[in-house]
Design goal:
Elements (H helix, E strand, L loop, with lengths): L4 E2 L2 E2 L6 E4 L10 H15 L4 E4 L9 H7 L3 E8 L5 E9 L2 E5 H5 L17 H12 L4 E5 L10 H6 L3 E3 L9 H4 L5 E3 L11 E6 L11 H5 L7 H22 L1 H8 L5 H11 L3 E4 H9 L1 H7 L2 E9 L8 H11 L3 E9 L3 H7 L3 E4 L7 H6 L1 H16 L2
Parallel strand pairs: 3-4, 3-13, 7-8, 8-11, 11-12, 13-14, 14-15
Antiparallel strand pairs: 1-2, 5-6, 6-7, 9-10
Helix pairs in contact: 1-16, 8-9
GO molecular function: glycerate kinase activity
Protein name: Glycerate kinase
Pfam families: Gly_kinase
Length: 389
């Protein structure tokens, strides 16, 4: 039986029921695998424990996998990767709602190992993914952005959806943010008409503007191999891109460049806003889509987590969103993680009662990285003993 009191609610009277709503441990365990391992560890202590697994994501890589785990159908399509080569990318569909993850087509994981293309990587394949969702009859599209290899302001995506971006000779500009330096004319008249009838939701965990010191090139360009000179080039190119679009689409194009989320995923957020998307924090959108609220209602304890619990976690990452929703419902929350870099007070402010890093069970960090699954099971045993017996 549970023995914890949560915000004045005595859970002694309820049979324990655990909701596992954790994100991936990036590079080691998927969100689905995290849930499986935590479940196994809990049931070693309480074999009959009721557990519901709801893998979550914040809009970045892993978003489609989380939707599929929640019952969406996985759809695959051949699209252009960030360097133009064909790749097989997936989106998720349930009824007339689609979940599209830009990293599936245009993410860093689509680049060859050690290869970066900060000036030329394109989001064209992300636009092809959106078009595939439209072809499948989607009327609501959750567009999760993050983990991109690109910094093209969504120009490639817009081109795949029918826009034309031309240079002084009337020829299409080159791919990537670097090609936008040569942009003279932007023609949006050919954009897919179905977009006007779709609820497009830009789901992101960052609220950066398109350009400037907090913009996409300056903040995220170096992660994609951009040198200081590349960052300056890309910032100027995206500033120019927005100025040309302002002439075509009016002052709203300039407003979009300053809007929260415009700088997400190399500026693809800006392109989505130009298409009429509405911006929402990624974890909030995904909790709605995945059916978190009804699952939360039945739970007596929520276990969330991700690979590294740190300052970034507190700014829109999945565990913070899960904890906020759970706290609002009067539920107790603990977290699992590979690495813990937050003090107890910061965790408490986020609504997390206690965090359990893998190093609690295995001090050797190398072992935690090499084979985290069995260690996570041991950590989960500790949670069961601390909170459920």
């Amino acid at each position: 039986m549970a023995n914890a009191a949560v915000d004045g609610i005595d859970t002694d009277t309820a049979e324990p029921r655990v909701l596992i709503a954790a994100d991936k441990f990036k590079g080691t365990l998927t969100a689905v695998q995290v849930a499986e391992r935590v479940t196994a560890g809990l049931r070693r202590v309480l074999p009959d424990l009721e557990v519901e697994a709801l893998p979550v994501a914040d809009g970045g890589d892993g978003t489609v996998a989380a939707a599929v785990a929640a019952g969406f159908e996985r759809r695959e399509v051949r699209v252009a990767g960030p360097l133009g080569e064909p790749v097989t990318a997936a989106y998720a569909l349930r009824g007339d709602t689609a979940v599209v993850e830009m990293a599936e087509a245009s993410g860093l994981q689509r680049l060859p190992a050690g290869v970066f293309a900060p000036l030329t990587a394109s989001t064209y394949g992300s636009g092809e993914l959106l078009r595939a969702a439209l072809d499948a009859g989607a009327r609501t599209i959750v567009f999760g952005v993050g983990g991109s290899a690109t910094t093209d302001g969504g120009a490639g995506m817009l081109a795949a959806l029918g826009a034309r971006f031309l240079d002084a000779a009337g020829e299409p500009v080159g791919p990537g943010g670097g090609g936008l330096r040569d942009l003279v004319t932007a023609d949006l008249s050919g954009l897919d008409e179905r977009l006007t009838a779709v609820d497009l939701v830009l789901a992101s965990d960052v609220d950066n503007p398109l350009t400037g010191p907090k913009g996409a090139p300056a903040v995220y360009g170096p992660q994609k191999g951009a040198s200081p000179a590349d960052v300056a080039t890309l910032d100027a190119a995206l500033t120019h891109f927005a100025a040309v679009l302002e002439k075509t689409a009016g002052p709203r194009a300039a407003e979009h460049a300053l809007a929260p989320g415009a700088g997400a995923a190399g500026g693809i957020g800006y392109g989505a806003l130009v298409l009429g998307a509405r911006f929402r924090p990624g974890i909030e959108v995904m909790l709605d889509v995945l059916g978190f609220a009804p699952a939360l209602e039945k739970a007596t304890l929520v276990i969330t987590g991700e690979g590294s619990l740190d300052e970034q976690t507190l700014h829109g990452k999945a565990p913070a969103g899960v904890a906020a929703a759970a706290r609002a419902a009067g539920k107790e929350v603990v977290a699992v993680c590979g690495r813990l870099a937050l003090p107890p007070k910061a965790l408490g402010r986020a609504g997390i009662r206690r965090a359990y890093p893998l190093t609690d069970a295995e001090p050797d960090v190398a072992r935690c990285l090499a084979d985290p699954g069995p260690i996570l099971e041991r950590v989960a045993e500790g949670i069961a003993r601390d909170f459920l017996t």
